[in-house]
Structure formats: C-alpha cells, structure tokens
C-alpha cells in the first residue's frame, strides 16, 4: 500500500485526479466509482478538467434499496450531479435500488464480469467498510444485499431530512469484486477516519476490518489528509 499524505481534502482531490489522468494515459477503460463526501473534490477536479470519458465505462459501488434512481438522495442522483451531467461516459452502471434482490445481484455481477474494473475509487467508513461491505462480510462476497449498521446510518443521516428516512439496506458490490480491480485509490479525510485507516493499513487482515483486505492487493494508493493519517 502506498500512502500519500496531503494537507486537506482539496489537495487530496488533486492527487487522485492526477492518478486518474495517468490511468487514462495508460488506456484504463472501466472506472469503479464511489459516492459520499470523500470523492467530492476529485469529481470537482474531473468536472473542471478537459479529460474525456465519452468512451469509458463507470460502475458504481452501491445504491440504497428502496430509492428510485430519480430520488434526490439516491446514489444515481449523486453521480449525475457530481460527475455524469458534466462528464458523459459511454455507459454508467449503478445498482437498481428498486429491483428485487435475486435479479439485481445476478445482473450486477454480470456487468462486473463483462466490464472488469481498471481503477476503483473508494472511500472508507468509520467502521472501515468499503463499498457497503460492513464488518463481518466474508472477503469472498460478490454483489449482495446489505443491512446497514447503526454506525453507517448515523454517518449518512446528514443527507436526509431525518434518521427515519435513511434506508436500512443497500445493494453493494462485494469485496471480491473490489479486489479484482487492477488499481485501487482509497481516499480518507478527517480525524473520524483515523482509526479505520490505521487498522486497515497496520492491523491484521480480518473480516472485522473490511478495508484491511487491501493489504493483499498489489496496487493500492491511499490518499489521506493529516488528520486521517494521524494514527499511522
Ligand atoms: C459510497 C461508499 C461508502 C463511502 C463511505 C464513506 O459509495 O461506498 O463506502 O465511501 O461510507 O463515506 P463518506 O465519504 O461520506 O465519509
């Protein structure tokens, strides 16, 4: 794991942007994308750049179950607003939060098989989840339905009018699918991510700390601000 410590989230976005630019120069075609507050500055850099994604494919990590794609808090809406409206891709895939589990899991795994990910963008939960793979998720898991933990619901309620409105479940790409990406860029900012980053990088590789599996991946860059790096 290569660690890049930056001053703040804005600088982190610039570092991640340069890594994406390099990947494009090496003909990366399929980009695994994340939502949440962490990648916001990266997406801003991409929106304001002249990079061209019109022959590229985006495959997102996850979506809330029960939210239609046009719901303002859906990850579909997030991606439209933060990236896809200004940077069109040849194709974009996000799990369908209104589809039935059996159907959606199979559909999404097929998409991932057909479009192996070249570069995967990740954030990390305070409990070290990646995608919505919460602690305890077997490392071999592919796309699956997830019951969000109380930690995650608390962390995500800021985007909703009230806690009751945060969906309790999501569809998420599995850890096996994330690990199949050729290159992984994980970003983390702020003191509340420091413990998760330390455990992910220095702790034992264990399903209790989903991000610890990244120690077994050959090409991971972690971009952290000084606060998130403070326990390393
Ligand atoms: C989002 C995702 C999650 C987030 C994580 C951190 O698609 O898969 O793993 O990356 O919950 O969220 P933020 O960036 O909002 O702190």
UniProtKB/TrEMBL annotation:
Active site: 62, 127, 129, 134
Protein name according to UniProt: Glucosamine-6-phosphate deaminase
HAMAP family (alphabetical): GlcN6P_deamin
Role played: Catalyzes the reversible isomerization-deamination of glucosamine 6-phosphate (GlcN6P) to form fructose 6-phosphate (Fru6P) and ammonium ion.
Family under the similarity heading: Belongs to the glucosamine/galactosamine-6-phosphate isomerase family. NagB subfamily.
Gene Ontology MF terms in the entry: glucosamine-6-phosphate deaminase activity; identical protein binding
Gene Ontology cellular-component annotations: cytoplasm
Gene: nagB
Single biological process term from Gene Ontology: carbohydrate metabolic process
Catalytic activity, reaction form: alpha-D-glucosamine 6-phosphate + H2O = beta-D-fructose 6-phosphate + NH4(+)
